[in-house]
């Protein structure tokens, strides 16, 4: 399968614990995005990378959240000291920046986080 | 704060009905408008990327139009089938990052 993959698909944790999610983008894609979706809402942008550089972070991303893309390939999203409000679907997407407006983003299946 | 609105929030139709959804977005600084189809437990699937005013795109029974001057896009499904049941999302491309609407949940009954 050459699509975007995410691991794990589901994560249940207790409040205060740290969690880490992984995203493997489509291999030749140089941009990687993280979004978060809560019930009844559309996905919200969190952050994105071009190669290994983190270019933008949303105001939604508190200091408890950190994302990395160390070699410009896979990315990790870590949430420290989880809170119940962090319960959501975390989506990863990748795209190939061609220098045009197209920039089609391909999504993974998401990681569903439940904080008890 | 950039706002993308979709209507209706949900739609229940019978098999064979044709449907349409609306996405409204800011008409200034337009870059691109994306449509996605998201079935439960699957990845959001890209349907269209629309970039030019007056664009019309088609994929099978699904088509979309774009009006960047007035800030809206329509998605049409002709002859809905039960397998079309999903949430349809539009997203305004703000220099790379996507700003999504809340989605339209479509349910097609056989």
Description:
The complex is a heterodimer of chains A (116) and B (110). In chain A, the strands form two sheets. In chain A, strands 2, 4, 5, 6, 9, 10 and 11 form a seven-stranded mixed beta sheet that branches. A four-stranded antiparallel beta sheet of chain A has the order 1-3-8-7, with no helix packed on it. The N and C termini of chain A lie far apart (33 Å). Chain A has no helices and eleven strands. Chain A is mainly β and 116 residues long. In chain A, a hairpin with a 6-residue loop joins strand 7 (65-68) and strand 8. Chain B is an all-beta fold and 110 residues long. Chain B is built from no helices and eleven strands. Chain B has strands at residues 5-7, 10-14, 19-24, 32-38, 45-50, 56-59, 62-67, 72-77, 86-94, 97-100, 104-109. In chain B, strands 2, 4, 5, 9, 10 and 11 form a six-stranded mixed beta sheet that branches. The model of chain B has no long low-confidence stretch (mean pLDDT 94).
Largest sheet of chain A: 7 strands, mixed
List the helices and strands of chain A in order.
EEEEEEEEEEE
Terminal CA distance of chain B: 41 Å
Unreliable stretches of chain A, pLDDT < 50, 5 or more residues?
none
- Total helices of chain B: the number is 0
Number of β-strand runs of chain B: 11
SS-based structural class of chain B? mainly beta
Shape of chain B: globular
Describe the secondary-structure layout.
The complex is a heterodimer of chains A (116) and B (110).
Chain A: E1 5-7, E2 10-13, E3 19-24, E4 31-37, E5 44-50, E6 53-57, E7 65-68, E8 75-79, E9 88-95, E10 106-107, E11 111-115
Parallel strand pairs in A: 2-11
Antiparallel strand pairs in A: 1-3, 3-8, 4-5, 4-9, 5-6, 7-8, 9-10, 9-11
Chain B: E1 5-7, E2 10-14, E3 19-24, E4 32-38, E5 45-50, E6 56-59, E7 62-67, E8 72-77, E9 86-94, E10 97-100, E11 104-109
Parallel strand pairs in B: 2-11
Antiparallel strand pairs in B: 1-3, 3-8, 4-5, 4-9, 6-7, 7-8, 9-10, 9-11
Quick take:
The complex is a heterodimer of chains A (116) and B (110). With 116 residues, chain A is an all-beta fold.
């Amino acid at each position: 399968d050459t699509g975007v993959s995410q691991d794990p698909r589901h994560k249940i944790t207790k409040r205060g614990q740290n969690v880490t999610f992984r995203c493997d983008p489509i291999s030749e894609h140089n941009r990687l995005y993280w979004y978060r979706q809560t019930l009844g809402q559309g996905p919200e942008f969190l952050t994105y990378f071009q190669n290994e550089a983190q270019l933008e972070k949303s105001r939604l991303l508190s200091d408890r959240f950190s994302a990395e893309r160390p070699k410009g390939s896979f990315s990790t999203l870590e949430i420290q000291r989880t809170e119940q409000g962090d319960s959501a679907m975390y989506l990863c997407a990748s795209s190939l920046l061609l220098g045009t407006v197209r920039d089609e983003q391909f999504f993974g299946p998401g990681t569903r986080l439940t904080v008890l | 704060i950039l706002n993308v609105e979709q209507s209706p929030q949900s739609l229940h139709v019978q098999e064979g009905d044709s449907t349409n959804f609306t996405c409204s977005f800011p008409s200034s600084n337009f870059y691109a408008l994306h449509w996605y189809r998201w079935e439960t437990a699957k990845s959001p699937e890209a349907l269209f990327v629309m970039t030019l005013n007056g664009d019309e795109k088609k994929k099978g029974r699904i088509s979309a139009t774009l009006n960047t001057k007035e800030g809206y896009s329509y998605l049409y499904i002709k002859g809905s089938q039960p397998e079309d049941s999903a949430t349809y999302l539009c997203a305004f491309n703000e220099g790379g990052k996507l700003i999504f609407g809340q989605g339209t949940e479509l349910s097609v009954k056989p």
